[in-house]
Every structure is written in structure tokens, then in C-alpha cells.
Amino acid sequence: MSVPQWELRARFAVSLADLYGQEVPAYTTLVDVSRAVNEDFVAAHGADAERLGSISRVTAERHGAIRVGSPVEMAQVARLFAGFGMHPVGFYDLRDASASSVPVVSTAFRPTDVDELARNPFRVFTSMLVTDDRRFFDAATQERLEAFVAARELFAPEALVLADRAAAEGSLGSDDADRFLTLATASFALSTEPIDRAWYDHLEAISAVAADIGGVPATHINHLTPRVLDIDDLYARMSALGIAMIPEIQGPPDWEGPDVLLRQTSFRALAEPRTFREADGTTTSGELRVRFGEVEQRGIALTATGRDLYDDLTAEVDRRLAHAPQGTTRVAVAAEVWREHLPQTETGLALAGLGFFRFHATGTARPSTGSGTVAGLAELLESGALVAEPIVYEDFLPRSAAGIFQSNLTDEGSRDDDQLGTPYDLVRLSEVVGITIADPNDLYAAQQAASLAEAEAALGHAINTTPVPTQENASV
């Protein structure tokens, strides 16, 4: 019996969740609360609750996060995840997204095909330590880091061979599938090997993230994130249970308009028992706080124009918050800024060219105005000849990811910004991974373009999608 990649991916997500739940019991609480939040949200909002994904998909959805220490390890991760039909999408530089010391660049491995996302959208945010960045590591530390990482083996060679076969053939036989899942899951279990105390402390003084990557003998799941339909409700319920949450929800604010991009929060990193090797060779027991429980609420993917506006609004929030009275929250300021500059409806986002949508001809109505070979998007939507289905944002935000990291650090570490950083971008990280990393905007744009082409064929004429300025459609 053959097991297709989507099923391998779904089983992998469940297997990792079981593992992480055993290692971090508070994660199980997070999942239970997330499920209750989603059920209550659906009960209160009906069909509208599933506007951005069916409840079955949302409840099953997870994203994981791991960290690796070198280009070799990153390339091996790419091979492993390719076996599950997960491909690198997006480039994230967390080094400059936070004032704290977070010396990593990242991508996310996920399905890219719409049907594959619908079957199972499991994604893993994967960060790589930039060991040659002099803002963080001097030459001696870099040399030792690279030697330490090179000496370890994160993935069993058999796991990579099975991954290559699954990627090439699109499936595995039942026995091979079971073996692949066992090996892949074991790769991300928390190691019980002793940690060199002096080496870990040296790295932790530079960056807690660097220590979690280059100061331990193996990688592990850093967090495994469920998706909720109301993250504010989740935050309140977790706090009521006495679970310490980070100070605020990262990303866009809660407001009365459309949800866009991604909102994230987490419970604080918990103390976990670990074994240390001391300078005299003895082993002792201790604790580390590096793993936390993250949760997310996903919104509509924004176009390049929309992302530029989002960045401008984020900067405006920073500016206003700096001059706001003490006690003013970022969320309150952001909601005010959002109301001033963003359309308050999905239709408004579509007409302004700020959000990505799939457009479908209904076949039951015609434009109320206009004629000829071109019809305007606004009149088609208004007449009901066309409906706009929002495309869910499947990716991440560098500042939000860095904010989650920073909020869970026990110390901000050290960095020397007088030094030059090692340049990285999507192209360079693609060379490291060994696979071209997809630009998420290209994927969303292709979905929208395909839907428009189908709609035009069904309607028998072209559709004019020239953006309408935000001020003209804000009340739509």
C-alpha cells in the first residue's frame, strides 16, 4: 500500500505533536484551549467563521519551528522536508528585526500547491545560525561553533534516503512510510546528552538563541503552533488558567476590519530539566528556558502594495507609541492607525489592490452597468456576477517572529553594531538550501491571476482590476 506525501505530512504533524506534548505538557493545554476557542467562535459566527479556512483545517493546522547551525544542516533539513512535500518559501532576516541578539536567517518549509495546502498545510519555520556575522561572533567563537556543529549528526542517513525517495516518487510504501516517520520524528526529540556548561554559557552571553542552536548536541522542536480563530480570546483564557503569556500579541491589531497577515502570541518559555557537563567532567542537573508555546491567527495575504502599507503603518504605530501617555498599549494605537488607513471590508481591500483574492464567476448575475469587452471589478462584485474569496496568508512576519523570540529570552545578549553583518537575502539562502526559495508573493499572485483568467473565460469578457485608491473605497 502506497502512502502519498500529503498523508506522510499529516502523520508527521501528528507525530511531532504527540512528541512535543509529552516533552512540554503545557502545549497540550494550549491545544485544548485552542480547540475550545475555535468551537465557540464557530458557534457564535456560523458560516462566517470559516471564511479563512474550514474549521476542520484550522483545528488540525500546525506550524513547527526548528533551528539549525550551518548551511550543511539547512540543506539536510530541505531534503528531509521535501519528502513530506514541504518546500522552502520566504526569506526572513531576524538579525535586524529585533534589538535583541537573534543571529539567524530563516525560511519556512510548507506545501505550495493549493490542493496540497488544503489536504494538510503543515509548515516548519526553520532558522539557521549565521556564524560568520561579526556583530555577534568573534573569530574564535565562530571557529569553535562551526567545529561543534560539523561534528554532530542531526538526521540519520536512512531518514534522508527515505526522504529523497518520497520526494522523487511522491509516496512511500507502508513499511517505509512508518520507518520514515519514526526516524524523522526522532530527529526533533529533545536530546538527553549532557550539555557542556561552559560552552553553553559562553554562547548564551552572546545570544540565548545561539546557545540553543550551537550549544546542544541536536536540534529539537522549539515550538509547535496551533491556529485559532480568535487569538484575543485564547490569550485571555490561557491567562485565566494561570499560564504566563508574553506581554502582547504580535502583528496586526484586533479591530473591526478584515484580519490581515498573521497575529501571534505564546506562553513564556518554561524551565525544563537538562543535564550539564561541568569543567571537571562531572554531570549535574539544571534547567533551561528555551522552548515556548506559540499560537497564531491567520488573515488575508497582502499584495506587495499592501505589505508596503503594512510596514508604513507599523512604523507609524512605533512613532505614535513613542509619544503616547504612559500605559498606552501598542494594540490600541495600532487599531487607531488601521482605522485611518485600511479599508474596513474585504471588498475594499480587493478594490484597492491591497489583498490577494480568488475571484469566481457566479453565473447567476450580470454587471448592473457597463458593456463591451471589459467590466470593472467593482461593478462585477456589486452586481454579484463575481465573488471574492480571500487568500489566506500562509507565511510569517520577521518582526513578529523576532518579537516572539525576544519575549521569551531571559537576557537580550550582546551585539556589536559597529561591525558589518554578513549579507543574506532570498537568493543567497536559496544557494545554502540547495533549492530555489519561493517568494510567497509570487505564489499568491499566481493563485489570484489563475482565478481571474477562469472568471474572465466564464464571463466572456476581461475584468479591469486597476486599483481604486483606498480613500475612494474605504466605505465599501
Question: How would you describe this structure to a colleague?
Answer:
This protein is an alpha+beta fold and 476 residues long. The protein folds into 2 domains: 2-299 and 394-438, Roll (2,3-Dihydroxybiphenyl 1,2-Dioxygenase, domain 1); 306-388 and 449-473, no CATH class. The protein contains 19 helices and 16 strands. It has helices spanning 5-23, 25-45, 55-60, 71-82, 114-119, 139-150, 157-169, 174-186, 197-206, 208-214, 231-240, 304-322, 330-341, 346-351, 377-383, 398-407, 426-433, 440-459, 470-473, and strands spanning 2-4, 62-68, 87-93, 104-110, 123-129, 171-173, 195-196, 223-226, 262-267, 272-277, 283-288, 293-298, 357-361, 374-376, 386-390, 462-464. The strands form 6 sheets. It has a 5-stranded mixed sheet with strand order 3-4-5-2-8. The protein has a 3-stranded mixed sheet with strand order 7-10-11. A two-stranded antiparallel ribbon has the order 1-6. The longest helix has 21 residues, at 25-45. It is globular, with a radius of gyration of 23 Å. It starts with a strand and ends with a helix. The relative contact order is 0.15.
Low-pLDDT sequence parts:
472-476
- What does the overall shape look like? globular
Spatial ordering of strands, largest sheet: 3-4-5-2-8
- CATH hierarchy: architecture of the largest domain: Roll
Q: What's the total count of β strands?
A: 16
Reading off the top of the CATH hierarchy, the class of the largest domain is best stated as Alpha Beta
Instruction: Tell me the fraction of residues in β-strands, as a range.
Output: 15-25%
**Whole-number total of structural domains:** 2
Count of individual helical segments: 19
**Roughly what percent helix?**
40-55%
Distance linking N and C termini = 53 Å
By CATH, the topology of the largest domain is 2,3-Dihydroxybiphenyl 1,2-Dioxygenase, domain 1
The CATH homology group name of the largest domain: Uncharacterised protein PF07063, DUF1338
Radius of gyration (CA) equals: 23 Å
- Main sheet attributes: strand count, strand direction, barrel closure: 5 strands, mixed
| Structural class based on helices, strands and sheet pairing | alpha+beta
Kindly state the mean pLDDT as a whole number? Answer: 90
